[in-house]
Design a protein that fits this description.
Helix content is 30%, strand content 25%. It has a six-stranded mixed sheet. A six-stranded parallel sheet has the order 9-8-7-10-11-12. The longest helix has 16 residues.
Length: 248
């Protein structure tokens, strides 16, 4: 039986294991998907060597960037983003080849593209982690200018206290790549001037639990279009399967 899995730490919130195992059952695929909750990325070689039937892995927080040094091949897209969340495990004789890809960018781009209108030219990306890099890459591929928003003073970012009503009207696409508002902390949201928003704003939240975060609710109150991260998650999970099983 083929094996697929997820590496990260912690993995209590993982969507992947139920999605993939349900898919295997529904489609009669002789495979199973398991969680590898490893407290250090240095344990990856042990995961690979002790699971000879392993064909592919997903990578989640906090290893999307750290995993790059373990890979034999990184797709141009994943290299440009600087983060990998899909690994194809290839067995060639006695050797094992690890190939890295990024399905976050595929899932996000396909999910947000139908919402975009000609007025959407600039975007704010809340957060600076691995997922935000995929979002940045995707938005730029769709022709938008982007700016990262951080709580801290960092190069090429702006801070929350600099986001004025004028900024959210100009940068009218706002993507939340932070965990703010994720269950069980549903009473939290990014500190933004929501009252300055209108129907030209898109608020996209990578969080999918709860279905509607406070970030989305507050934007919708002033007419903004909103979307959560569930469709992105489904699309990127499907893309993972394509990377694992596609011909190269």
């Amino acid at each position: 039986m083929d094996k697929y899995g997820l590496i990260g730490y912690p993995l209590g919130h993982s969507f992947s294991i139920s999605y993939h195992n349900q898919r295997f059952a529904d489609e009669g695929i002789n495979a199973k998907y398991v969680n590898f909750e490893i407290p250090s990325i240095d344990e990856l070689p042990e995961v690979i060597s002790s699971n000879p039937e392993l064909k592919g892995l997903n990578v989640t927080i906090p290893y999307k960037e750290k995993v790059l040094e373990f890979l034999d091949y990184i797709s141009p897209e994943a290299r440009a983003i600087g983060a990998v969340n899909v690994i194809k495990v290839i067995h060639e004789g006695q050797s094992i080849i690890l190939k890295g890809y990024n399905s976050d960018v595929i899932g996000f781009t396909k999910s947000i593209e139908p919402m975009l209108e000609p007025c959407h030219k600039k975007a704010l990306i809340l957060g600076t982690g691995g997922a935000s890099k995929a979002v940045n890459y995707g938005l730029k591929a769709l022709g938008l200018e982007t700016v990262y928003v951080s709580r801290y003073e960092r190069p090429d970012t702006i801070q929350y206290d600099k986001i004025t009503p004028e900024v959210v009207r100009e940068y009218n696409v706002i993507v939340n790549c932070t965990p703010l508002g994720m269950y069980p902390h549903t009473d939290e949201c990014p500190d933004l001037p929501y009252e300055a928003m209108d129907e030209n704003n898109i608020l996209y939240d990578l969080i999918y639990n709860p279905d509607e975060t406070l970030f989305m609710k507050r934007g919708a109150q002033y007419g903004a279009q909103t979307k959560n991260g569930l469709e992105m998650l489904l699309l990127q999970a499907f893309a993972s399967w394509e990377f694992w099983n596609g011909k190269e």
